[in-house]
Amino acid sequence: MTTSAIGRRQGQPIYLDYQATTPCDPRVVDKMLPYFTEKFGNPHSRNHAYGWEAEEAVEVAREQIAAIIGADAKEIIFTSGATESNNLAIKGVAHFYKDKKDHIVTVVTEHKCVLDTCRHLEQEGFKVTYLPVKANGLIDMAELEAVVTDKTAIVSVMGVNNEIGVIQPLAEIGALCRKKGAFFHTDCAQAVGKIPLDVNAMNIDLMSISGHKIYGPKGVGALFVRRRPRVRLVPMINGGGQERGMRSGTLATPLCVGLGEACAIASAEMAAEAERLHGLRDRLLNGLKARLPEIYVNGDLDNRVAGNINISFAFVEGEGLMMGVKDLAVSSGSACTSASLEPSYVLRALGLDAEMAHTSLRFGLGRFTTEADIDYAIDHTVKAVEHLRSLSPLWDMHLEGVDIKSIQWAEH
Amino acid sequence: MAYSDKVVDHYEHPRNVGSMDKDSTDVGTGLVGAPACGDVMKLQIKVSPEGIIEDAKFKTFGCGSAIASSSLVTEWVKGKTLDEAAAIKNTDIAHELALPPVKIHCSVLAEDAIKAAIKDYKSKSGLGEDEKAAG
Q1: Fewest C-beta atoms under 10 Å: which of A339, A363, A398, B114?
Q2: In the A/B pair of chains, how many CB contacts fall below 8 A?
């Protein structure tokens, strides 16, 4: 492999899709490697040194994960990833408390794995409230307060949105849930290691964590499950009773070690890295704005993680634009990138018109993004947008002062 | 998704981009699609007194396949009679550009754009349904 830098392999586009996944940090890989070969023991083997050294490694990792969110190591359950964690948290709580409570609250902009889990529970007879968001992507606390009742078992609100990077008011939500007697679950796959989190200060009862979003390996995640006051779950996977009986199955020692090390690195570098990424993001946004009119940021710019910017480039279509920025690996909210022909449900939830949702690109910046990458991205994007606007009948209409909404379009 | 070489070529070097005077009687304009669906094509044809398409121009808001489909049809309709142009099928466009199944709608839109431009020209020049009815 010819590697000039991580995320910039020879002949490959510049990687600007850090919300989709991140490369494993080489420091993480170094820590993992011995647990594939010489330290291969089963961490649940209590009878010999192979098991003991694997168990010790897993417990160190558990401590590292707990530390980054202010939890106790005993409250960390290893899973296969944030999708499993979200399923276990929501289904587990709903099923355990179903005799007393039958209501779940979540938000329309949650990740598909939360929304689909809630849909599934609706089919089982649970009632689910899907809260809308404001135009900036944040929930309205008064609306949340109005829908949480004494029948609400769990409120699930993500920490950071994967498409638009906005940060929900976790501490306020936690305080409200504690007051109302509902458990608070938060999908923090995009938040851990990016923003400071404290499960006690924020009154969080369950938190989902992903390995591959924080420079750890794919295939591993964690769920924080509060012990005091105790949160109880019905497990989804039955077996040998590992992970306090909540998630049976032999732990994948190298993956656990990788997730732990990823958390330790993120914890040590978070403040400086956030500041660096903030500078790069401002450089990107200001660079684009200086050269392109009619571009709009989707989602709140202040309550947002530093590594995300989501922009609508009016009058050019997102997938066409992605083809134009072929030297950048970015993501689009355009319908054409999915088979559904529907533009991003997250952008639609902000109240964006379908035509504006079609014109969006998400730039995800991360640990291996450089200033040179950003400068290249600005120039490349500006040229692609200008090319496509020169082809766009909608851009012509805009220049002629025609309101596109005034035209009777034949929807197909 | 990987694009065919022909789609990439039309995307990077689109043929016959531009606009003609839509009020001119020898110009027919077809505007099809909708911004909310992510595709809008504007196709214009300039027709000689002998009924031959002398020139064609397009502008398209859409994905690479939509841009390539409209660029391609501007090349194809030039030099054709109105009837010959109206006979261009979306399947011909899809085949020429090797469009995958999810992009067939782009070729359908391009066929619609030709038909809409011809219809507009005929209605402006008095060659529309009225003449058929009279004839």
Answers
A1: A339
A2: 88
Look at A320 and B102 and tell me if their CB atoms are within 8 Å: no
The structure's pTM equals 0.92
From the list B17, B39, B64, the residue facing A323 with the nearest CB is B64
Give the residue on B whose Cα is nearest the Cα of A317.
B62
- Taking CA–CA distances from A321, the nearest residue in chain B reads B63
pLDDT at B102 over 90: no
C-alpha to C-alpha distances, A101 to A122, A151, A281, nearest whole angstrom: 13, 5, 44
Does the pLDDT of residue A110 top 60, yes or no?
Answer: yes
Mutation target among A312, A317, A404 for the B interface, most CBs of B within 10 A: A317
Q: Is the CB of B63 less than 8 angstroms away from the CB of A317?
A: yes
Residue-level pLDDT at A357: 86
Asked if A391 lies within 8 A of B31 by C-beta distance, the reply is no
Q: Which two tokens stand for residue A168?
A: 């929900």
Q: Which amino acid does the sequence have at A28?
A: V
User: Quick check: bond before A229 cis, omega within 30?
Assistant: yes
Residues 6+ apart with CB under 8 A from A363: A16, A281, A284, A308, A309, A310, A311, A330, A377
Mean pLDDT of chain A: 94
The verdict on a CB contact (< 8 Å) between B37 and A396 is no
What's the sign of the alpha-carbon dihedral A282, A286, A292, A293? positive
Task: Output the pLDDT for position A319.
Answer: 87
Task: Output the CA–CA distances (angstroms, integers) from residue A113 to A123, A160, A402, in the order listed.
Answer: 16, 15, 41
Q: What would the two tokens of residue A178 be?
A: 């504690």
Q: How far apart are CA A79 and CA B111, in angstroms?
A: 51
> Nearest residue of B to residue A341 by CA position?
B37
Q: Is A371 exposed, middle or buried (0-12, 13-18, 19+ CB in 10 A)?
A: exposed
Q: What is the mean pLDDT of residues A192-207?
A: 98
Q: Which of B61, B106, B115 to probe the A interface (max A CBs under 10 A)?
A: B61
Nearest to A349 by CA among A357, A339, A341: A357
Write the pLDDT tens digit of every residue in A290-317: 999 999 999 999 999 999 999 999 999 9
Query: B14 and A391 in contact by Cβ < 8 A?
Result: yes
Q: Could you give all domains of chain A from N- to C-terminal order, each with its CATH number?
A: 14-20+270-406 (3.90.1150.10), 26-266 (3.40.640.10)
Nearest to A387 by CA among B127, B13, B46: B13
Positions of B annotated as catalytic residues are 37, 106
Residue B133 pLDDT greater than 60, yes or no: no
CB contact under 8 A, B60 and A334: no
User: What's the whole-number mean pLDDT along residues A129-138?
Assistant: 98
What ipTM was assigned to the predicted interfaces of this complex?
Answer: 0.90
Q: Which fold has domain B5-126?
A: Sufe protein. Chain: A (3.90.1010)
CA of A170 vs chain B CAs: smallest distance (Å): 34
CA pair distance B27, B42, nearest whole angstrom? 13
